[in-house]
Every structure is written in C-alpha cells, then in structure tokens.
Amino acid sequence: MTLAIRFYQTGGPEVLQTETVEVGAPGPGEVRLRHRAIGVNFIDTYVRSGLYPASLPSGLGTEAAGVVEAVGAGVEQVRVGDRVAYCGGPIGAYSGERLIPAAVLVKLPDEIGDEQAACMMLQGMTVEYLIRRTYPVQPGQTVLWHAAAGGVGQIAVQWLSSLGVNVIGTVGSDAKAQLARELGCAHVINYSTENVVERVREITAGQGVPVVYDSVGKDTFEISLNCLAPRGMFVSFGNASGAVPPFAPLILAQKGSLYFTRPKLGDYTASRAELEESANALFERVRAGAVRIAPSHRYALADAAQAHRDLEGRRTTGSLVLLP
C-alpha cells in the first residue's frame, strides 16, 4: 500500500484527496517505481481544474524521480535498482509508488540528485525543445521570455544566456526582477510598474524581438504580439492566467506577417530517440554548470493541495517538489 493523491471532481485545490492505494505488480512493459521526489507543475493545476480533461476519478502529476523496484515482462530500458526520472506517460506521479511504462523513463546520471531531477525534467526539457527546435535561437539574438523568474523561466534564462543570447525577462515584483538579473537576464521588465511593449521597443531600438516565449496566456497575448518584429514567432506554451482567447488569423498579418505556434513537450519527445536526446541535452547543460536547478519549495505529498494554492497564488518562485 502507498499514499496517493486523487480527485473525483474538477475544481480548486480542495478537490485533492489523500488516499492509500494498492500498487500491484508491473505488467508487460511496465515497472513499479518508488518515488523519491515528485515535481509540481502548472499543467497539474490545469488537469485538476478541468482545463485539460481527465477521466475521473484520477490521479495527478506527470513528473517524478525514483528507484525501480520491479520490472514487468519485456522491459529492457531499465533494471531493478536504477535511478530514473520521467515527465510524461499516464498521470499519477502524486504517489509514493506507482506502475508506469518503462518507455517513458530516463536513467539519471550520478551527478543529478532526486529532488533536482524531479523539478528539472518537464521544465528543462520544455526549455530544450522551445529554444533548440520550436525556434532555434542563435547567439546574439534578443528574445522576450515572460515569467522569467518562474520554474521554466529560470532554466531558460540561464540556458539562453550561456549561449550568448540577450534575454528580456518579464516579472511581477522587484524581488523577482533581482532574481532574473542574477540568472542572466540582460533586461528585466516589471509588468506591475512598467509598460512591457514600450520597454521592449525601447530596448530593441523600435524593432521588436524575433521570438516571444509566453507561458502566461490570456493576460499577455496582445502584449506578446505587439513586442514582435515583422515575421517574428509567438510561442505560446502555457495558460497561467487562463487560455488565450480565440482570435482571427488576420491579426497576424496586420502585425507583420507573424507566426503563432502552440507546442507541447509530448510532440517533441514522441520517439525514444527524441526523448533521450532531449534529456541528454538538458543533463549536459546541468553537468557543465551552465544551468543550476534546485527546488525552491518542498512540501510533503499529503500537502499537495497547499502546493497548488501557493503555485496558483503566485507565492512561489522557481520549482516545487512533493516528498513522499
């Protein structure tokens, strides 16, 4: 038996319930994994709230690190005792143990700890595909990254600045502005006190940026469009303030023949080769010291609802983990 978080109806953090469940033996292609640390991400709140559909009752969470306890028939990727991490597959990471397909697991290098891995796989691999494949950023370019002090933003700012990219980061407070500068932002805009579009145009001598990375959603949609240079790309990869409203494609033409994309990690790690390549690129950046990742907030697994309240209330900076 193991502790697990489940919900029977969508809604606020209060719908999350703590239960004791039986895990059982792994089937063909599966492993039984004992979690050591579990990542908390905004996508978890989307599932819990109903923005992203789930079959109820449901577990929650898509990212964790742990140790393989048992393997089912046909499993070749990992062995009992291996330290592994994942950021995909069936939801259900908010648990002490679980069954999971072996195909989604990645072996962890010795240099990367469990808590570190639990808060870097989803966010770090998201940064990897966004800056290397969705829009391959080049040294010397200037990009705009919203929520630069958030979990994904912190990794992105470090990674981009290590490549010689000038990052304009937006934040919501002076404390987060200071953190963004320390991480490597060339310019920081506090959207609570400054006009983001005016500042971006000022920084870029009126040209705008070639790409905007936006995980905020509804509140920054028009701002992001207005910060882009002609033929620039708007990369929308999150909905922290709510989903982007429907819009007429003609607006992209009117604002300079812009590109708009709404990517997700699963489509960039669909094959085993892509999954391993993405993870290894992240591990290389971390081991080289170019990207430093550690959880900023730790909660007991039973306190998952409080972790969600803090995350949605923007009372956190950086990454959150649950500890079984």
UniProtKB/TrEMBL annotation:
Residues 11-322 form the Enoyl reductase (ER) domain. It comes from Pseudogulbenkiania subflava DSM 22618. NCBIfam families: PRK10754.1. The lineage of its organism: Bacteria, Pseudomonadati, Pseudomonadota, Betaproteobacteria, Neisseriales. One of its GO terms (molecular function) is zinc ion binding. Keywords: NADP, Oxidoreductase. PANTHER family: QUINONE OXIDOREDUCTASE PIG3-RELATED, QUINONE OXIDOREDUCTASE-RELATED. Transmembrane segments: none annotated. CDD domains: QOR2. SUPFAM superfamilies: GroES-like, NAD(P)-binding Rossmann-fold domains. GO terms for cellular component: cytosol. InterPro entries: ADH-like_C (IPR013149), ADH-like_N (IPR013154), ER (IPR020843), GroES-like_sf (IPR011032), NAD(P)-bd_dom_sf (IPR036291), QOR-like (IPR047618), Quin_OxRdtase/zeta-crystal_CS (IPR002364). It comes from the Bacteria. Gene3D superfamilies: Medium-chain alcohol dehydrogenases, catalytic domain (3.90.180.10), NAD(P)-binding Rossmann-like Domain (3.40.50.720). This is NADPH2:quinone reductase.
